[in-house]
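Thread amino acids onto this structure.
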């Protein structure tokens, strides 16, 4: 099968374009990766032409021999639909999880995203904690979440609670909460390690003054998660812009009642008294 006809590739491109249309991908901002299922690899692998091995910049032994569809470094999300072969690539990892090689795409050169260490370390953690169900890692630059990192304390508890309060569906969509990484230099192993540590407990990690990472089982769930968090952040930005305090809100007991009816467990550390 032609790579560009495969359903997982079409789903990837649609999600990337949806993110562009949301305004989360100025210039080359953001990156997306998908851990390809073995049957999907088999359906397109006759088209693979392996390039040379390159170091990942970190080690992900649990992902040895896995294949990923990833956006290219410096590539624009707004171009993915119209020139996918130039914008994205499929990579294969070696049997130690130390090196990768491009087997398809990026036809005009360039490398996979500079955030490859973060993507792969997140994939490694999420593959383990989700028993293999998570396949998508998404990094975007959503405006309102970034704005909040200048005015809220950079604490998991505060971001989770404030965003839960802004929309009743939030604790149902991300019941485990949200992690926050303080400002760090992007692109390296250190920020990747800090993010993947948070991904052991959360599906969402915010990078202060930079953006957000979301993990999920498929394109719909992962895009929907990013969208829900950013929508909630937008409501909070609007609320804070009107006045610094709230006249009324969803209370800790309201959340406990919601948890019972919606059959989610909400950690008490987020239901503190203010
Ligand atoms: P890349 O173009 O290398 O993917 O980088 C974009 C980005 O958002 C870095 O954090
Ligand atoms: Zn970024």
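Threaded sequence (274 positions):
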């Amino acid at each position: 099968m032609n790579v560009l006809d495969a359903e997982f590739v079409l789903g990837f491109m649609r999600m990337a374009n949806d993110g562009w249309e949301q305004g989360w991908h100025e210039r080359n901002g953001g990156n997306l990766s998908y851990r390809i299922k073995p049957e999907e690899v088999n359906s397109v692998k006759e088209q693979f032409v392996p390039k040379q091995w390159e170091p990942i910049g970190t080690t992900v032994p649990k992902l040895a021999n896995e294949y990923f569809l990833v956006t290219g470094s410096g590539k624009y999300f707004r171009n993915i639909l119209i020139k996918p072969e130039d914008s994205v690539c499929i990579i294969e990892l070696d049997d130690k999880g130390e090196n990768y090689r491009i087997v398809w795409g990026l036809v005009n050169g360039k490398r996979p995203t500079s955030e490859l260490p973060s993507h792969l370390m997140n994939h490694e953690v999420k593959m383990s904690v989700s028993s293999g169900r998570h396949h998508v890692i998404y990094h975007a630059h959503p405006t309102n979440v970034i704005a909040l990192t200048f005015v809220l304390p950079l604490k998991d508890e505060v971001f989770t609670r404030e965003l839960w309060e802004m929309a009743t569906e939030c604790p149902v969509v991300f019941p485990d909460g949200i992690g926050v990484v303080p400002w760090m230099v992007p692109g390296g192993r250190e920020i990747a390690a800090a993010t993947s540590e948070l991904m052991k407990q959360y599906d969402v990690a915010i990078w202060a003054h930079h953006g957000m990472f979301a993990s999920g089982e498929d394109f719909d769930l992962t895009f929907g998660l990013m969208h829900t968090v950013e929508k909630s952040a937008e409501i909070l930005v609007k609320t804070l812009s009107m006045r610094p305090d709230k006249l009324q809100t969803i209370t800790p007991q309201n959340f406990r009642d919601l948890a019972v009816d919606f059959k989610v467990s909400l950690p008490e550390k987020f239901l503190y008294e203010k």
